[in-house]
Structure formats: structure tokens, C-alpha cells
Amino acid sequence: MDRRAFLRLGAAIPATLGATGIAPAFAATSTPAATATPDAFPATAGWRVYELTTDIQLPAASAPATVWVPMTAGQLGDYQRTVSNEWLAPGGRVRPVRTGRYGVDMLVIDWPNATHGAPLTGRLTNTVALRDRDVDLGAAPARGAGAESPAALREYLRPTALMPTDGIVRQTALAITAGMTDDMTKAQAIYQWVVDHTCRDASVRGCGTGDVVTMLKTGGVMNGKCADINGLFVALARAAGVPARDAYGVRVDDSQLGFRALGKSGDISKAQHCRAEFYAAGYGWIPADPGDVRKVALEETPGGLPMTDGKVRAARAMLFGAWEGNWVAYNHGHDVRLPGSSAAPVPFLMYPQGRTVAGTLDSLAPAAFGYRITSRRVA
């Protein structure tokens, strides 16, 4: 077992996190060449390869119809590679699209006409190689390590529609980081503050909205899901001058670290999860996931666990600087405009979106929408 992982997780969690390090990623790069195969990502190097399949089936009477399906990021650091993308949509027009300043990849499927009484069907299959991340925060920063471009860092300091960096957000960030001068110390203080002042709310639909101003204005305990809790971390970090970003994706496998609440395999139609990262010179992009700390507290065992429980404390320590490779990122996008749609941009894209002759489909209700996402590990 890696010593840093052991110190983070404690003996109560039978797990290993590989010390994979970090590499910068602004927008996802192009999908690797078609010659890439799962064999290029051996388990001996910490890789696990998964096949994600998104199936769409709409009634024939839905046409004209369009769906927008998020695609996995082609390459992120040295912990995610998309090996291949394949799609099929009989009777439909299909095109992969990258849109916006964040480089959000999606598959757009249009059915302009009914298909002679047959359902409108489409399938996207992403094959992705993943591995664990673990940044050694105890090591001295290394000059040039994980260096990111100034343009990217400026981008990840900007506000978004639901994550402003002025007003109550800036006031809160400055209060949390008063007297602190380096980004690592600020980010750690914000992480601990978010864990202490938020609470996962099982009644919130999907992953939440990411409306951080509304959260802060509630005072006291601020409820939400991962897009709310981790979005709050990102907004506060940016307001404090620390580059930060959400990573929107989906869980693809059960946890190998002993956390029942932090994994999902098989049918992952409702397993979407966003994570967060912040940037520190000499380290690069560093994982942070206060939302999953609160998920462990609420969902690890029936009835929940107190924040003083050993498993919650282990998650709290691990999830500042590490994350498990049983989750895949789609993108870092915010305020995503769907190509060909006249509707307002969506705050983020990690669920399929759709519009039919009857109107907009409910992206948070897979069965009613007509989509199913499955995951299987490729041997």
C-alpha cells in the first residue's frame, strides 16, 4: 500500500490509492487515435478500463426530436483516457460536437421525421481507461510541476451564472481565508469550512442546481447535493483568488476503498456525480470533493454516520488530494449552450438532454425521458 494513502485512509479502510500525480488539462483533448486499445492501459500501471453505454429510446411520435448526450473527456491528466467512441442511431442524424470555451464534448442526435412507427433509438458507447489519483501534499512544491497555462488559470477564476465571485460569495471567501497568503492553505481552509457548513439533502433531485448564492443566503446548515456542495467550494476558491473547477461525470464502478456510498456499477443512469479541483503552483490540479464526504456521512450506513465516525474522518482526509478511479469525467463546463437549441444554456452537462415535438424532456428522470446508461469493466 502507498504510504500516503495509508496515512489518509487509516487502517479501517482496506484500500490502496496509486500515487499517479497530476497533469494539467484545460479542455479535454481530442479522442485518442483509433489504434488505441484497452490493452494499451495495463492493470499493472493502475489502469481500469470501462465500457459506458448510453441507450436512447423515444416513441415514434416524438419526432422531430433532438437529444444531446455528454461524451467522456478524451484525455485528462494521466488518470483518464477515452479509448474509443462509437455511436448508432437508425434514421437519425448524428454528429459529435465540441462547444463553448470549456470544450464540452457531446453527441447530438436529430430525428427530423418519424420512423414509420418504430421507436427513435440511439446508442453511444464510450470506452474509457481510468486510474486513481493521489497528490502528495506533504511533498515540497516542485518548480514547474503540473504547470498550467495563464489563460487556463484565468478561465478558472471567472464567475459563472450560478457561481458568482462577488457579493456574499466573496465576503464569505475572504472571511474564511483571512490572513492566508498561499493557495494551498486557502483551498484547505475552504474545503474544511464547506464540509463543516453543508449537509447532503437526499430530497434534492439529481445532483442539485449549483446555486451557491441561495445556499449562502440560507445561513446555518446549507443543504444540497454534489453540484451544490462542490460548486460552493469552487465558487469560494475562485472568489479567494484560487483557480478551481468542477468536473462533471458519472460513477462507473463500486468503490474498491471500502466506501459503499461512493460507487455504482451496472445501471448507472442515476449515478451522476461532479467532483472539484483547485490549482496550486508546484503541484498542479488537486482533487477536492467535500460533497462526497457529506455523502458518506448520510448514506454509508442506514441512518447515517456522525462526522466523528472513523469512516467519515477517513473520507474527509482522503478527499482533499485524492479521488478513486471508479468515476469518469465528461467535462468542466458551465453555462453550456446546446447546439441547435434556442433554449437557455444549461448550468452544466452530465445528464442527457432532449427535446421532442411535445417539449423538453426531464433529464433527471431516465425512464420517463427514455435513456439508460450502463457500465461494465473490460477485462
UniProtKB/TrEMBL annotation:
Keywords recorded for this protein, A-Z: Signal
State the protein's name: Transglutaminase family protein
Pfam families, alphabetized:
Transglut_core
Domain Transglutaminase-like, chain residue ranges per copy? 218-292
Carries keyword Signal? Answer: yes
What species is this protein from? Cupriavidus pauculus
Q: What range does the record give for the signal peptide?
A: 1-27
Give the coiled coil ranges. Answer: none
* UniProt-listed InterPro entries: Papain-like_cys_pep_sf (IPR038765), TAT_signal (IPR006311), Transglutaminase-like (IPR002931)
